[in-house]
Structures are given as C-alpha cells and as structure tokens.
Design a protein that fits this description.
The chain is of the alpha/beta class and 336 residues long. It has three domains: 113 residues, 3-Layer(aba) Sandwich (Cobalt-precorrin-4 Transmethylase, domain 1); 85 residues, Rossmann fold; 85 residues, Cobalt-precorrin-4 Transmethylase, domain 1 (3-Layer(aba) Sandwich), CATH 3.40.1010.20. It contains eleven helices and twelve strands. Strand 6, helix 6 and strand 7 form a beta-alpha-beta unit.
C-alpha cells in the first residue's frame, strides 16, 4: 500500500507546480518593430556583403539597435564613426539609414571609397524639401533633437546658416528670424507626434506665412507605433518598450506610454535587461518595439514572460503596414 504521507506530499508538490505561475495578460502592440526603412538598410549591408565580400564598412550604426549591429558584425560588416577609420582605398562603405551630410559622400569619393547610400527614403524626402525651401530663399526651421544623426545629416545638406534648430515649444516661442515672412519648417522623422504638433502650432501661430511639408515629415512607422501604444498603455499595469536606449523613435514610445498614464514603463533590449522584481504584482503588461528592433527580441521577451507567468496573449492592431522600399540601385539584381 502506498504511504499516505508520501502520496499527499506528491500531490502537494504537483499542485504547487501547477499554481506557481501567476496569470498575466500580455497586450502586444501592432504595428511594432522593423519599419520599411530599417529593413532596407539592413538588407543593404547584407546584400553588399554578398556582392563584394567582407569587409563592408558602415559609417555609424546602420540603425540604432545593438543586436542588429552585432549581427551584422558577425557577417563581416565593420562599423566606423568617421571615414578616416577605413584603411583601404576602394573599400565599400554604407551610409546609415539616418542620412549623412553631403560632405561625407564627397569625402568618400575623394578617398576612392565606394559609397552606398542606405538613407531611409523618408529622410531623403526631408532633405529634398529643405533644399527646395533653400532655393526659394526661405530659412528652414528644423524641428528635431540637437546632435541626432538624422538632424546632423539634414543640416548638412545645405549651408549651416540655412537652418535654425527648434527642439521645444519654448524654442518656437522665442526664435526671432530675420525675415518672419520667408520661413519653412521641416521635422526629424522620429519625433513625438504630440510634441511636434504643439511646436508646429506655435510656429504657425507666430508666423502665419510659414511653409510646411506637403505631407508631414514624421514617418508613417513612427506615427503608427505611437498610436498603437496609445491604444494599449491605458489598459495595462506596465509597458515594456523593446529597443536600444540611443534609438529616438524607441524613446518616443516610452514617453508616449508614460503620457497615457501607464505607471510602470521600462525599455529593454533583451529579456536579460528586465528587472523581474518590478512585475510581481501586475496583472497586465503591454509590449511594443521601436522601428529598429527585430521581432526575434520581442519573441524572446514574450518567452521570458511565459517562463514566469501563465500568459494570455492579445494583439492590439491599430494599422496595417504594407510599405516597402527598394534597395539602392547598385545593389538591385538588375543593376549592371
């Protein structure tokens, strides 16, 4: 006959094993993660490695995500901040998705380097609009974050005196341009939609004649990801934003969640970055990812939650993205 004490103990252990995981609702934002410009940039580096072999140099991080950068390094990409770090004339160098000043491709050509432009087409759109405004004699008020590579690249398309940088509503309120009737504005593509709306409102109120873009400069992916966060953040106890700290659009997702009233918002690149002690008493968590974060990292974090919780997963979709961008011309299969 089985020992009744041992039998009871075994049943208790089995019961504990079933009940150790507390229930948790995970709300997964959609859209999230890679946008078309990021996909194009990564594929540009991978295609260049296939065609030309390693090393292929990349000036600045191709996109702001450490996992992506390390993955490309493993395939033979070499990341540099300046062209003088490239030792070999005739080497291929990819310019990042954020865009570069005009002086950079010029300097690369002078050194005999073979430049490949992976600038996101939506950033290129901002460059072209700024050049048109400049040709028409307008001072361009560039809404963006000082020092961000995209802003540096945009300002570098024209003489420096052609721009004034506007970072906040306060900047918009105090700027005194030399000719208030001959202005235009452009924006960094990865800004907060709400912040930018307030800045533009201040500029248009102060300068009614100011010219704006035919279609807003903040890219579709930035807008869509922020809208998805707005749909989720008010419904959950916590939000995790997957991505790197130096990613502008990822930081804006964190800010968006906080503005929607979510009390616990954290960024994480990998599951190992999560402080699990923060989630012991939550019933629901929202998950989103910046436009440079690959889906594999999101899957990793969901799997880590499943290890600790009995997860019910719900996808909250606010837009369906179908945008695609072709590779740079020299990398396309039909290139001569």
């Amino acid at each position: 006959m089985a020992n009744p004490v041992a039998l009871a103990l075994a049943r208790g252990i089995a019961h504990i094993g079933v009940m150790t995981k507390p229930p948790l609702r995970l709300l997964l934002c959609a859209p999230r993660g890679f946008c078309a410009g990021v996909v194009r940039a990564i594929e540009t580096v991978e295609r260049a490695l296939q065609l030309y072999g390693a090393p292929v140099y990349v000036r600045h991080e191709i996109v702001h995500n450490k996992y992506v950068v390390e993955s490309l390094k493993a395939k033979g990409a070499v990341f540099v901040e300046e062209l003088d770090e490239i030792p070999d004339a005739g080497a291929h160098v990819v310019f990042s998705a954020h865009g570069v000043p005009k002086a950079v491709p010029k300097a690369a050509a002078e050194r005999g380097l073979l430049g490949i432009d992976a600038t996101c087409p939506l950033v290129t759109k901002v460059h072209r609009e700024a050049m048109i405004h400049h040709k028409r004699g307008r001072l361009v008020l560039l809404i963006g974050h000082a020092g961000h590579p995209e802003v540096v690249g945009t300002i570098g398309q024209l003489p420096e005196e052609s721009f004034r940088l506007i970072g906040t509503v306060a900047d918009a309120e105090r700027i005194e341009p030399p000719d208030p009737h001959n202005l235009a504005y452009a924006t960094q593509t990865t800004l907060s939609v709400d912040d930018t709306r307030d800045i533009v409102a201040a500029l248009t109120r102060r300068f009614p004649d100011i010219a704006g873009p035919a279609k807003e400069d903040i890219c579709y992916a930035t807008t869509n990801r922020q809208e998805a966060v707005k749909a989720v953040a008010g419904r959950v106890d916590a939000m995790i934003v997957v991505g790197s700290e130096n990613s502008s659009n990822t930081q804006r997702l964190r800010e968006t969640a906080e503005r929607q009233g979510c009390k616990l918002v954290r960024m994480a690149l990998r599951a190992a970055d999560i402080d699990w002690g923060l989630y012991g008493h939550v019933a629901s968590v929202g998950v989103t990812a910046g436009a440079s974060a690959p889906e594999i990292l999101i899957d990793e974090i969901i799997a880590a939650f499943r290890e600790r919780f009995e997860v019910t997963l719900e996808v909250v979709e606010t837009a369906n993205e179908t945008v695609q961008f072709p590779l740079p011309r020299e990398l396309r299969p039909d290139a001569s």
